[in-house]
Amino acid sequence: MDILRFATAGSVDDGKSTLIGRLLFDSKAIFEDQLEAVERTSRDRGTEYTDLSLLTDGLRAEREQGITIDVAYRYFATPKRKFIIADTPGHIQYTRNMVTGASTADLAIILIDARKGVLEQSRRHAFLTTLLRVPHLVLAVNKMDLVDYSEARFEEIREEFTAFASKLNTSDLTFIPISALHGDNVVSRSENMPWYEGSSLLHHLEHVHIASDRNLVDVRFPVQYVIRPHSATSQELHDYRGYAGQVAGGILKPGDEVMHLPSGLTTRIAGIDTFDGKVDEAFPPMSVTLRLEDDIDISRGDMICRPHNQPHVAQEIDAMVCWMADGVKLQPRSKLVIKHTTRTARALVRDLHYRLDVNTLHRDESATALGLNEIGRVSLRTTQPLFVDDYARNRLTGGFILIDEATNGTVAAGMIVDAH
Amino acid sequence: MLQRDYTTSQLDVLEAEAIHIMREVAAEFERPCLLFSGGKDSIVMLRVAEKAFWPAPIPFPLMHVDTGHNFSEVIDYRDRRVAELNARLVVASVQASIDAGRVVEDTGRRASRNRLQTTTLLDAIEENEYDAVFGGGRRDEEKARAKERVFSFRDDFGQWDPKNQRPELWNLYNTRIRKGEHIRVFPLSNWTELDIWHYIRREDIEIPSIYFSHTRKVFERDGMLLADDEVVQRGEDEPVFEAVVRYRTVGDMTCTGAVVSAATTVEEIIEEIAVTRITERGATRADDRASEAAMEDRKKEGYF
Q1: Least confident of A31-40, A130-139, B26-35, B73-82
Q2: Which terminus of chain A has a lower count of CB atoms within 10 Å, N or C?
Q3: Are residues B220 and B262 located together in one domain of the fold?
Q4: Are A55 and B143 in contact (CB under 8 A)?
Q5: Which of A271, A305, A339 is a domain's end point?
Q6: Who among A1, A211, A286 is closest to B5 (CB)?
Q7: Calpha distance A356→A348 (Å, rounded)
Q8: Cα distance between residue B105 and residue B113, in whole Å
Q9: Nearest CB to A285 within list B13, B27, B54
Q10: Same domain flag for B39 and B136
Q11: Distance (Å) from the C-alpha of residue A198 to the closest C-alpha of chain B?
């Protein structure tokens, strides 16, 4: 059994909470005491139906104001897979939360109300999903019961969205007509839509192939921690020196020739260790410890790759940046801390090329700053070289965060588009 | 030639993520510690820590906030495990906080030291100057936890501000703090109760005996079975009887209920949990039943 992480985009009005509630309920991930609590609160508030959004809205302020403040993570499993849902709110702080939820997602579900069709917010959701390179996108056309389960309406929406999506880098796009309220095509195929020949939403989530979404080609091993037991009692351990980290790309094997960055020195992998014994290969997302044949001065923040397949060693970076801070803005000459893989450096914003309107995809080149929830293309100069790939090639070596030294807050997420 | 699929099982993914988190803390903080209560989540967390730094020993101490009202089987287990790993254990005692006048003990039948633990914990963090504290909390446990970050910032007073959390993207964690502040780190955030049990089975980890079915003198309160023990205040209208029970969570005796169960092996516990329709905290924790936002309120004050 493997794990599928997915993000859900849409507002309460699109039936997002109802859909999540149904997936959780039908997979028995909602427990009786949780359901009772939700029913009790719904009753107390005079709501006629059981408001399943109360299951995900956990904070007092959210329940009081009937809004979702933050990304909530929910869990369920079927015999096929374990699922982690990043449930992102529809309105408040939308971009920031969606970007956060999408950063680790294998798949995103965008909900559309069949009566309303493709709205501005649907386009925004789709754009953010592709900006974050979520490999699989599902357009769930909801409330089909309210359009008489009409195939023509579904096709109309499909065509409109497909036309828009052709402007984006969507790799895998699936359309599913559903009714979350009545359960049509959610867990099992609906008898109300015999014209639909695809799978139910849950069946799709269970079977979508994600193993090859990881980059298994470019070997990237950011060194996270050096393990040196310094044992006084064991001679073998006394000299042990292992480089611990989580594989960010490619497949490593003992005997492979590898290169260390920044030194450029080459050596071979002597062994790949784990607590459970030596392994004969390591690939994402394994956390392992490498031993190398030669003594090279290696520390946290360094990168191990292959001599003929190296990341860019760069101090000049172009990236799409989503600004997440209230108050302070991103502007040319801003100085920030950049955290990229296991390496931390300082970064200077050299240029803001444009601000992107996430609804129209219009590039505003006259923009002089990025405010909260705004996205733009910037050039950065870093104090130390970073070992980077284009985000489109590897999300782990192409993504970074920016931190404001004055507040220590995480103020931006960045996706590298070019480096030199 | 057959191409390998490179699919990774859910437990391997969760373990790799937790190891990454622990190494990140060890690399970036000066004085981390790991909260170890002898409960199943902290047992799993400790095993992951063992794996993350092997063959070197775990590079930080363990801390237990001892209410003085713990099950003796669990304290025995704690001490045995600490000795096995040759780890350093710091015990922060709620009794000591009471004796020093830092907190005042509740009185009456429902008296519990649960809430007092927060002061003891925060005092110990301050006294030892810990800047990162590992906790075994999981997001599936409770709805306030569902919104908490893996690296959860605490201010000078140890408080959590749920409305002002740092965004967390990819596997990049912001570890920056000022002196006096700290980060609570939850490496098991994405694990569910069943994942914990599947992992305990796979790793064949010993757990305290009270997790397995046994005969115990109990009494009933609010639909929960509490242990008959001198530390638990029992009314005359709460008669004691013997029952075949086990504990689904391990906490303070005064607020942790047992469930009727015949499960004597990890396998049987997994079967039991797979079909249960009540959450672990709903079934066994009086502390969370106090109000709709009981956990959120305690967490804001600095609770685990």
Answers
A1: A31-40
A2: C
A3: yes
A4: yes
A5: A305
A6: A211
A7: 21
A8: 7
A9: B13
A10: yes
A11: 25
Of A59, A289, A409, nearest to B162 by CB-CB distance is A59
Return the number of CB contacts < 8 Å for A and B. Answer: 190
DSSP three-state, residue B98: helix
Dihedral angle sign, alpha carbons of residues B165, B167, B170, B175: negative
Nearest to B147 among A72, A237, A287 (CB): A72
First to last CA, chain A: 41
Q: Which residues of chain B make contact with A56, given a CB cutoff of 8 A?
A: 143, 146
Same domain, A283 and A321: no
A3-20: average pLDDT: 83
Residues from chain B that touch A70, judged by Cβ atoms under 8 A, are 147, 162-163, 165
Q: With an 8 Å Cβ cutoff, are A246 and B20 in contact?
A: yes
- Residue A229 to residue B14, Cβ atoms within 8 A: no
Whether residue A381 is found in the same domain as residue A250: no
Q: Output the pLDDT for position B2.
A: 45
In the predicted model, what is the mean pLDDT of residues B112-123? 87
Distance from CA of B243 to the nearest CA of A (A): 23
Name the residue facing A283 among B6, B27, B52 (closest C-beta). B6
Helix (H) or strand (E) holding A113: strand A107-113
For the residues A277-295, what does the mean pLDDT come to? 96
Over range A390-401, report the average pLDDT: 97
Give me the number of domains chain B comprises. 2
Please choose, from the candidates A335, A241, A273, A71, the residue with its C-alpha nearest in 3D space to the C-alpha of residue B167: A71
Chain B nearest CA to A255, separation (Å): 20
Range of the domain at A243: 221-305
Hey, of B147, B193, B197, which one would you mutate to test binding to chain A, going by the most A CBs within 10 A of its CB?
B147
Sign of CA dihedral A264, A269, A275, A279: positive
Report the predicted TM-score, pTM, of the whole model to 2 decimal places.
Answer: 0.94
**Boundary of a domain, candidates A305, A336, A367:** A305
Q: Where are the beta strands (DSSP E) in chain B?
A: 32-35, 62-66, 89-93, 132-134, 151-154, 182-185, 214-221, 224-227, 240-247, 258-260
Chain A interface test: which of B143, B205, B279 (most A C-beta within 10 Å): B143
Beta pairing class for B32-35 and B132-134:
parallel
What residues of B are in contact with residue A401 (Cβ under 8 Å)? Answer: 167, 169, 172, 174
- Kindly state whether residues B62 and B33 are assigned to the same domain: yes
Q: Which domain holds residue B185?
A: 10-195+294-301
Task: Tell me if B143 and A100 make a contact (CB, 8 A cut-off).
Answer: no
Cβ within 8 Å, pair B16-A300? no
Q: What angle do the packed helices B266-275 and B193-203 form, to 10 degrees?
A: 160
Distance CA A97, CA B179 (A): 29
